[in-house]
Amino acid sequence: MKLPGLESVERQPLNVIVYEKLKTSIVNGDIEPGTRITEATVSKQLNVSSTPVREAFRKLSAEGLITIVPWKGAIVQEFTSKQILDVYQCRTSLEELAVELAIPRIDAEGIEQLKECVKKSITCESHTEYVELNTKLHDLIYEYADNPTLMNLYNQIKDVVIHNRIVTSYSEERKRQIIEEHEAIIKHIEQKDIDNAKQAVRTHIFKGYDHIKTRFEK
Predict the structure, then answer these.
(1) What CA–CA distance (Å, rounded) separates 101 from 163?
(2) What is d(CA 205, CA 199) in angstroms, rounded to the nearest whole number?
(3) Could you tell me which of 86, 85, 84, 64 has the C-alpha nearest to residue 76?
(4) Nearest residue to 22 (alpha-carbon basis) of 50, 49, 51, 46
(5) Cα separation of 159 and 153, whole Å?
(6) 84 by DSSP, 3-state: which?
(7) Which helix (H) or strand (E) holds 76?
(8) Which letter does DSSP use for residue 3 in this model?
(9) ∠99-100-102 over CA atoms, to 5°?
(10) Of 15, 59, 125, 189, which is most buried, counting CB atoms within 10 Å of its CB?
(11) Which residues of the chain are modeled with pLDDT < 50?
(12) What is the pTM of this model?
């Protein structure tokens, strides 16, 4: 079986190249959800050894893009529309509570860290770095909320959230919107305005859901 969207690679840092090529093909839908992929298939098609493919599989699995099945390869992650809706409903409540708890506790250093995440996300060119910065911003709010139970609940849905952030990182229009939404959230946090901060979080998550839902329906 030949996987669509993959071309052979030149001699470069192979683990990074293999990972980025697979990720791009998965996010763009060239390799469809539910597709079984194996190290042998990818190694042969990209003309590389199994080692960089294995490393790429590990990273893609950690990001929720594939599920590794022992001795059988991996399956491209597939979420139903109901699963995605369920996650965003829960995420809205969790993040509103997180920002409410974080505002009384966050200090000037924390505000600066949030602003730095946005600043770097504006100029970064890597999809991977963008997702990491986006995730760091939200994680910082949870850290300042200082509620381990809340963090544990969030971690239960984080694989879907990260998966969707990766998908979103390929939309320049949505990324610009996210930057504006993050700036609004930070402004209200800095002003200690809990009600408007919660509203900004709600708006941000609803718009994110609408974007993913539209992608899903295509």
Answers:
(1) 26
(2) 10
(3) 64
(4) 46
(5) 12
(6) helix
(7) strand 73-76
(8) P
(9) 60
(10) 189
(11) 9
(12) 0.78
Q: Which of 180, 181, 174 is CA-nearest to residue 202?
A: 181
Residues 65 and 76 sit within 8 Å (Cβ to Cβ): yes
Q: What is the pLDDT of residues 80-99, one digit of tens each?
A: 889 889 999 999 999 999 99
Residue indicated by tokens 């730095």: 116
Q: Are strands 66-69 and 73-76 parallel, antiparallel or unpaired?
A: antiparallel
Output phi, psi for 106, to 5 deg.
-70, 140
- In terms of Cβ atoms closer than 10 Å to its own Cβ (0-12, 13-18, 19+), residue 215 is middle
Residues in the chain: 218
